[in-house]
């Protein structure tokens, strides 16, 4: 067991942290108020190889391991506290990986190079207006017709709809088929595809929207993997993306504790510095301990993905599912708690935009309510793995 990062990993982590400190921190408020990650920031990320990192070098990616991508996600979550950049990053990493692994050669050559260059967006469309947790009962359908797929239905709360319209790109879209599920790449600029923008409370730099498919025709080359097996590819992508979500939450939690530690060291109350009082001091210690635990849990989840999932080895599926679900359950909660506590140490100042903690609070909340799967869905996965499938009252 070796917890030390290699020289290469350390150098990469330092480079991404510098990008986070110099670029993302400086621009996070702008990202939040303009509702957009500026093109030069995306260009800077592409220059560092951060967009769709796990994609093969052949298609413009870094061919990065899940472990290296996890390290980058921590730094991006620490850099842009609003989580918008982290969401952009992790969606492209997770779903870029799935396309790279299971897509057709022509689709990969067409879709991935602009995504890796920051000139197109790639995301996931699985949630529907009738619900996102119960995916097995989703309604959007795809049927074959004259060598193409025809998609009809509706998706909701999908990240990156506006970005895919503006930059180009689209979403890997889960659809019901006669023999299971098809996972299809659907370009957002397709004919007969209309979009809707939702007005969110946080992570404003990346949009969330609806997609309505009125018999949208999708070429056969955009089918991911085999027909009917789409659910498996989507679940594989969720395992990868959930690990990176958790890593971004770890980075945000560490950023909150950095802000809080500095404040406890300098703020004076009742003639002493705030950190001398055991109330906030012990809270800091407890939060630090929990964040450290979740960070290593997260790095282990990434290590398991590298060792099994990314090699196409399903032999440790239960171990991977438990590791990913438990970290996706823990990381957003501890990150939110860190931000909330640090806000309270700041008193009234914590409630101002100047201190900036509200950016983190609004952003991290998206991972508590549902993005990449709600907390209870993580609990259901863990319950299934710990007690057995008989204890899940539905499929
Ligand atoms: C900011 C943001 C970005 C998103 N981006 C995307 C995206 O890019 N693509 C995409 O497809 N989706 C996206 N989503 C949607 C997300 O995947 C869903 O919110 C999530 O799957 C939950 O679905 P739902 O919101 O319909 O809630 P529901 O499924 O209606 O669930 C409501 C609540 O009930 C809980 N619950 C559900 N079933 C059970 C059960 N059996 N037992 C106990 N509790 C249960 C859930 O955990 C949740 O708290 C995004 C969501 C947000 C908030």
Descriptive notes:
The chain is an alpha+beta fold and 395 residues long. The protein has three domains: 7-121, Acyl-CoA dehydrogenase/oxidase, N-terminal domain (Butyryl-Coa Dehydrogenase, subunit A, domain 1); 122-222, Butyryl-CoA Dehydrogenase, subunit A, domain 2 (Beta Barrel), CATH 2.40.110.10; 230-391, Butyryl-CoA Dehydrogenase, subunit A, domain 3 (Up-down Bundle), CATH 1.20.140.10. It is 53% helix and 15% strand. The chain has eleven helices and nine strands. The strands form three sheets. It has a four-stranded antiparallel β-sheet, with no helix packed on it. Strands 1-4-5 form a three-stranded mixed β-sheet, with helices on both faces. The chain has a two-stranded antiparallel ribbon with strand order 8-9. Strand 4 (169-177) and strand 5 (180-187) form a beta hairpin. Helix 3 (66-79) runs antiparallel to helix 4, helix 7 runs antiparallel to helix 10 (357-369) and helix 9 (317-345) runs antiparallel to helix 10. The longest helix is centred in the middle third of the chain and has 37 residues, at 230-266. The radius of gyration is 21 Å and the shape is globular. The two termini are 37 Å apart. The model has no long low-confidence stretch (mean pLDDT 97). Flavin-adenine dinucleotide (FAD) binds next to strand 1, strand 3, helix 10 and helix 11. Residues 123-127, 131-133, 157-159, 200, 208, 366, 369-371, 373-377, 380 line the site of flavin-adenine dinucleotide.
């Amino acid at each position: 067991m070796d917890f030390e990062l290699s020289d290469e990993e350390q150098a990469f982590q330092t480079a991404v942290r510098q990008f986070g400190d110099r670029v993302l921190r400086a621009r996070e408020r702008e990202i939040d108020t303009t509702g957009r990650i500026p093109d030069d920031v995306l260009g800077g990320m592409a220059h560092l190889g951060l967009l769709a990192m796990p994609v093969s070098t052949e298609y413009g990616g870094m061919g990065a391991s899940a472990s290296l991508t996890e390290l980058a996600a921590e730094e991006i979550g620490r850099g842009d506290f609003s989580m918008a950049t982290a969401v952009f990053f992790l969606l492209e990493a997770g779903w870029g990986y799935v396309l790279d692994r299971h897509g057709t050669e022509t689709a990969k050559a067409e879709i991935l190079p602009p995504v890796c260059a920051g000139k197109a967006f790639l995301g996931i469309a699985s949630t529907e207006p009738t619900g996102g947790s119960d995916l097995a009962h989703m309604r959007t359908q795809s049927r074959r017709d004259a060598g193409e797929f025809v998609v009809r239905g509706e998706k909701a709360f999908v990240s990156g709809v506006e970005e895919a319209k503006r930059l180009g790109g689209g979403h890997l879209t889960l659809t019901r088929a006669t023999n299971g599920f098809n996972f299809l790449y659907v370009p957002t600029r397709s004919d007969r595809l209309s979009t809707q923008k939702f007005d969110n409370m946080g992570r404003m730099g990346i949009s969330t929207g609806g997609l309505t498919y009125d018999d949208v025709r999708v070429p056969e080359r955009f089918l991911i993997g085999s027909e009917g097996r789409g659910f498996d590819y989507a679940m594989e992508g969720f395992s990868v993306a959930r690990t990176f979500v958790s890593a971004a939450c770890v980075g945000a939690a560490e950023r909150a504790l950095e802000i809080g530690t500095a404040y406890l060291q300098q703020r004076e109350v009742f003639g002493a510095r705030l950190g001398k009082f055991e109330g906030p001091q012990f809270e800091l210690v407890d939060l630090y301990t929990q964040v450290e635990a979740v960070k290593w849990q997260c790095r282990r989840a990434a290590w398991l993905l590298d060792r099994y999932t990314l090699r196409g080895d399903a032999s440790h599926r239960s171990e991977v599912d438990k590791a990913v679900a438990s970290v996706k359950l823990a990381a957003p909660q501890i990150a939110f708690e860190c931000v909330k506590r640090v806000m309270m140490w700041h008193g009234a100042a914590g409630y101002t935009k100047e201190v900036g903690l509200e950016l983190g609070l609004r952003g991290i909340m998206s991972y508590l309510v549902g993005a990449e799967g709600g907390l209870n869905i993580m609990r259901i996965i863990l319950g299934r793995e710990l007690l057995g499938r008989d204890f899940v009252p539905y499929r």
